[in-house]
Amino acid sequence: MSTTAIPFLDLKASNAQYREQLLRACERVIDSGWYVLGREVQAFEQAFAEYCGVKHAIGVSNGLDALHLILRAMDIGAGDEVIVPSNTYIATWLAVTQAGATPVPVEPDDSYNLDPSRIEAAITPRTKAIIAVHLYGQPADMVAIMALAERHGLKVIEDAAQAHGALDAGRRTGGLGHAAGFSFYPGKNLGALGDGGAVTTNDDALAERVRMLANYGSRVKYQHEQQGYNCRLDEMQAALLAVKLPHLDADIAHRRQIADFYQHELAGLPLVLPKVRAGAEPVWHLFVVQSERRDALQQALATAGIGTLIHYPVPPHRQGAYAELNLPEGSLPVAEAIHRQVLSLPMGPTLTLEHAAVVVQACRDFFAKG
Ligand SMILES: *Cc1c(COP(=O)(O)O)cnc(C)c1O
């Protein structure tokens, strides 16, 4: 049993870096007497839009609601089909079914993201949109996906919950499709101290519809033009996010350093390492390896005091929640194989290279034992 405890992600340490600024932001909000839809949200929305290089950012309650609001604002619902990755967090699918539409899964390529060459076969006369997830922090092939969508008259929604600041062909996520949904769940690369999310878009009309739907279907107080939702980001979370946003690029640079170290030091072991697509600049929300001996490797690392997670152990189509879709084991073999073999190594803004070296050594020791 090792004494080195290396958590998968140390949220406490990462927020402790900004403790004084976070406390001052809390005080400012408490003393303002204004807690919903005010100056803090407005200021954060402006800063986040600028960061993403888009015209509009709308603060919302969480990442799932961000995606759901986009679909509703696009009038996508009952009878419509939306193409989704077979390999994603279930929220991507839930946004589609909450809107009343049907998710149509498409398998990934070896970047773990939607394989553009498989999308066309999934398009039917009912298809309205594609949700491209930038999984594990690597942007999907948005140039190919947008070209394909244009040919078929489809909307493209980015699920950017894991990819704040990632670049595809030199452009930041959030502005690569028609609209994007972000999550500020505490463990995401830009994390609130609670739930939060944002919708980004360059489309003025869509931005206004999302804003209206997120606030009870109302543009003018007590006038409700649509049956909307209560999906607002609150002032406190916006103020805390505004403290953390200026540090995001430094965090990303740190994650890249750790990822480069893992890539270099783990090469040669019987592990499938992440493949970075040409033109993609990932932000390494997760560093995901694959092994046929995944469970034993995870156990060995745990014994050495190293925390790992599996993203994700069961693909959406094999969850009880989607039994109704009747997609049996074997129907999406690429995603199923990924879910059996993936393991996420420790990664985060406060993980040191020394700790990463301990992780590498533990992997080497595991495979040396055979
Ligand atoms: C976290 C996540 C979401 C949902 O975000 P919440 O803020 O938890 O609702 C959606 N999609 C992906 C890919 C995610 O990782």
Give the second-level CATH assignment, the architecture of the largest domain. Answer: 3-Layer(aba) Sandwich
Structural class: alpha/beta
Number of strands: 14
Terminal-residue CA separation: 19 Å
Classify the helix fraction into a percent range.
Answer: 25-40%
Relevant CATH superfamily of the largest domain: Type I PLP-dependent aspartate aminotransferase-like (Major domain)
Q: Strand fraction band?
A: 15-25%
Give structural notes.
The structure is a single chain. This protein is of the alpha/beta class and 370 residues long. It has 2 domains: 11-106 and 113-245, 3-Layer(aba) Sandwich (Aspartate Aminotransferase, domain 2), CATH 3.40.640.10; 247-368, Aspartate Aminotransferase, domain 1. Helix content is 39%, strand content 15%. It has 13 helices and 14 strands. It has a 7-stranded mixed sheet, with helices on both faces. It has a 3-stranded antiparallel sheet with strand order 7-6-12, with no helix packed on it. The longest helix is centred in the last third of the chain and has 19 residues, at 248-266. Pyridoxal-5'-phosphate binds at residues 62-64, 88-89, 91-92, 133, 159, 161-162, 183, 185, 195, 197. Belongs to the DegT/DnrJ/EryC1 family. The modification N6-(pyridoxal phosphate)lysine is found at residue 188. This is dTDP-4-amino-4,6-dideoxygalactose transaminase. The active site is at residue 188.
